[in-house]
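Internal ticket - ligand job 761, zinc ion:
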Amino acid sequence: MTTVKSSNLGYPRLGEHREWKKLLESYWKGDVTEKEFHATSKEIRLTNLKKQIDAGIDIVPVADNSNYDHVLDTSVAFNIVPTRFGSYTKKLTLDQYYDIARGNKDNVAADMTKWFNINYHYTVPEFDNTQPRLLENRWLKYWQEAKNELGVNGKPVIVGPVTLIKLGKLHGDYVSTEKDIDILLDSILPLYQQVFKELQDAGVDWVQLDEPSLVKVAHEEEVKPYRRAVEALRAAAPKLNIELQTYFDAIDPYQSVVNLPVQAVGLDFVNGNGENLRHIREFGFPKEKILAAGVIDGHNVWTADLSKKLQLVTELQGISSELWIQPSNTLLHVPITTKYETAAAPELLGGLAFADEKLPEIVTLTQTLNGDDTRVSFTENAAALKALNESKARNNVTVQTAIKNLDQSHVERHSTYAERSKLQQAQLHLPKLPTTTIGSFPQSTEVRAKRAAWRKGHLTDDQYDAFIKLETTRWIKLQEDLGLDVLVHGEFERTDMVEYFGQKLDGFYATQNGWVQSYGSRGVRPPVIFGDVDYIEPITVAASTYAQSQTEKPVKGMLTAPLTIINWSFVRNDIKRADVQNQIALALRQEVINLEKAGINIIQVDEPALREGLPLKKRNWQNYLDEAVYSFKITTTGVRDETQIHTHMCYSDFEDIISTISDLDADVISIETSRSHGEIISAFEAVDYDKQIGLGVYDIHSPRIPTVEEIADNIRRGLKVIDDKQFWVNPDCGLKTRNEEQTLSALANLEKARNTVLTEL
Ligand code: GLN
Ligand code: ZN
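stdout (structure tokens):
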């Protein structure tokens, strides 16, 4: 008989009431002492652990907690710190740690970037000039704490050495060559060995070695450093059991990876298009090893279909000698509990499973395989799913028919760009090098205070509306005074470019307490797309037409595109993602048409998250990009030739997706490039980009005011390769995080720079 156990890979840090976030922020403000900080952190850690034990999880993770970010914890434990912060010989103080995480008066913070393909951001390790040494065995410390306080032999979770190296930078670039990986392994492997030996000697049974970078490995050759690492760790601590954990996708060099010398291999059976399962069916699984099967979705919020999952784990049980049932990845990336979602309709609530609702799913599957009577759980589960699937929200015939009837006419403008652009110019009369901004203006303290007051009911709808109008009028006037050519309404009514649309479309649920950590103490509450997405009524038309009524200059309408909405939401998984995307697109298409009808001649549809949603494996890119183009075109092609469609992208390097950008067939794209001007321009040249382009000519992320000369130089550089008839002048992103003074000074310089360059043409 195969032994079956339940296991977890990590638990959310924030706390049910965001206690952890509040603790960090109070400490930063000086409202709690370091001693209080540590005492409360410990309470939070133990509460989280106790919940997992009480739920019946056999193998619980420890040391998955953090004071900011687990990658940073791993780096600083080994003295891998950016050189500007010096080098350490003993454990960093809490303040030294936060200096690196958040920056201080002398130094900017360490770089932060996206963790694989999800919305968590880690602190980038920098491997220059440090003397790696073990400053603290934090894994042992938290294992001991769990043992002493709760009597549990927990499973320390540690970011594996190869993943740590590949996520890090050497001399400013991400580490990628075999040689660099080897050199860095030489210096950090002995430290990992020491950690593992100490864990073994203390009596630790299992350690979870996270090597998610394995899912990006395409060739056998690249498995070498992972083999070298686990061999070294085994040699240093032969009695310590290693669970080599992968997640977020399937493993390509399957046989090499499952045959690495470890006692358990953790595979993701939720993501990766079923490839891990196909490999197991074809090649089997090593007899002497434990299969740690990630079967419960660790980064979505839906109740699992237990009978389907049971089929899967039953099959896996037959293949391995010992089976662990676990989530596909740490539960860090889902909210904690659905128990505060009191506003959710019962059929939705029954279909939602956050971290605390996923634990019992894991336990139920384990118990079932172990022969317990779990029929009640299965009956309840089936009823909950049935209620959600049969709900009105998931059976909107109009929307479903519209999706079925999509055809070429929904994704084509009437005329080519060359023809449209003439008609647009005849209507708009824009000067050469037109100036504009990306959409949002400062969300000042006053704007935020009024919104909060309105939400609490201290302001009536009319009062709030009047305030927003006042602010819009004021900024229309400011934009006119600056001399900008295409104006925006300023987005004062929006907190967030996704949440706002979620609130106005059918099929979305805004959680009350569904917080997940985005980075550091920052939490986000992604909307939940649970039903068919439908257009209820105009969303932005009133704001845009009001702004247009205040000026003779063209006002640009402002929407968020489907991919960005979907990438920043929790998305239903009972239908294809592309269908959800297209439902959103069809709803927005109506909004675009309504804006046009209301006299808005320029409409910008923002797609900043298109690039970041790219699948982890390159071979899946094309399909993703084709679907992205399709939904963008559904959104934007319902208009007359005279209407000018803009789009905007930011946050990333675009070289990989330039031809996709061109395929979107937007008349104008504005793009964040102020930090990487040269490369992007030549990339556009390479695809013969014939439409218009606004290159961000200064970096809005910094409070620094760019000089006229600097901006002019950026424009001149762009004009070397892009025709002046195609070129727009704009900041590189929205201005909502800047203050009024910074915004006005920077835009005044932008205008002057444009005017200077115009005289040179
Ligand atoms: N229109 C949005 C804004 O200006 C775009 C935001 C973004 O690109 N992230 O705020
Ligand atoms: Zn942007």
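Auto-summary: The pocket of zinc ion (ligand 2) is lined by residues 438, 608, 648, 650, 672, 733-734 (CB under 6 Å). Residues 178-202 form the longest helix (25 residues).
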